[in-house]
Structure formats: C-alpha cells, structure tokens
Amino acid sequence: SDVYKRQLSSYAFIILLIHFLQRRKIPVLPCLQQLIPPNRKRNIVEGFDCSYYDDLANLPWKRENTESLADLLIGFFKYYAYEFNYENNVVTIRTTDTITKEDKHWTEEDLYKPNVHVDFTIEDPFEVSYNLAKGVDQKTLRIIRSEFSRAYRLCATMQTFGTICLQPFDETYF
C-alpha cells in the first residue's frame, strides 16, 4: 500500500486535483455534495453520508472558468507548493468551505498512534474519518512540497515537459 510507503495514492492525487479545481476564483468543478437538494434522501453507508448530486444531465452548473490547461497546471503546482495551509487545513472536496485539522480532530494530540501522521491531511469524501495522507510524515511532506515547488518553477519559466520530467530531484533542499 502507498500509505505504508509514505507515499500518496493516485486516488489521493485525484482528490488534490478536484480540491484545487473547486477553489479557483472562478471554480472549474462544482462541489457535488453542496448541490444536493435539501429534500433529497441521503445515502448513508456504514454511518457515512455518501450523498452527492448525481443527475449530471441536469447539473445546475455553468462552466465560466476560462483558464488554459497550462495556467491550471501551473496554478495546481503553485497552490500546493506555496498557498495551501498544510499546518492547519484539510484537503476536502465535500465542501468549498475551509475545514481545519482541529475541526476534524486530526491533530497530533487527537491522533497519537504509531505510523499515523497528520502533517498532511486529505479527507476521503466517502469515508470522512479516513486521512488519505496518514502515512506522510514531515520529511515526506517536505519532499512532496519541494517537488510541487520545483514543478511550479519549471512550468512558470516555460520549460519543456521533457525538461520538467528529466530534471533530477534536488536533495539539497533537505
């Protein structure tokens, strides 16, 4: 499992991407949990509310964001390198409101368990008590942020995709 290797799963990266796209000044993606009509029956699975707006043919959403794919990619790297508040906040796609680690009781004091870290917190939208990044410790988070920073710098200076992918990892950051 990626969690025990102190890595993020592909699912966690998808949640990171959706979170970012929901939080643009003009959102690229809607928050499907926030679009559920109030009178709709909730879908509760093992105690978790797994409801979301699923009538995609009648989605009350209009795409107004005009950012290019390149701008979004650069913005993604910048957001997770410099803007996201890792110390206090949780990556979530259930709401566009900020959720803090304290709100979820995901602090060092709340979760002192071996091999469970709260340096990086990504909420599973269907099992909201599960942190998809629970295996990421401080050192691994520094590496992840360093790579987001490196990718941002290379993309922002218009390096070719081949250059970005071939540039060696800089361990002097640590």
Secondary structure topology:
Blueprint: H1 10-22, E1 44-45, E2 48-49, H2 69-83, E3 89-90, E4 99-100, H3 101-104, H4 138-156, H5 161-166
Antiparallel strand pairs: 1-2, 3-4
Compact summary:
The protein is mainly alpha-helical and about 170 residues long.
Please describe what this structure looks like.
With 174 residues, the protein is mostly helical. It is built from five helices and four strands. α2 packs antiparallel against α4 (138-156).
The termini sit apart by 25 Å
Question: Mind describing the biggest β-sheet?
Answer: 2 strands, antiparallel
Shape: flat
Give the helices and strands as they follow along the chain: HEEHEEHHH
Question: How many strand elements?
Answer: 4
Helical content stands at 25-40%
Look at the structure and give the mean pLDDT.
Answer: 85
Strand content: under 5%
Give the C-alpha Rg. Answer: 18 Å
Q: Strand sequence of the main sheet, in spatial order?
A: 1-2
| Low-pLDDT residue intervals, each spanning 5 or more residues | none
List keywords for this structure.
174 residues, two-stranded antiparallel sheet, 5 helices, 33% helix, flat
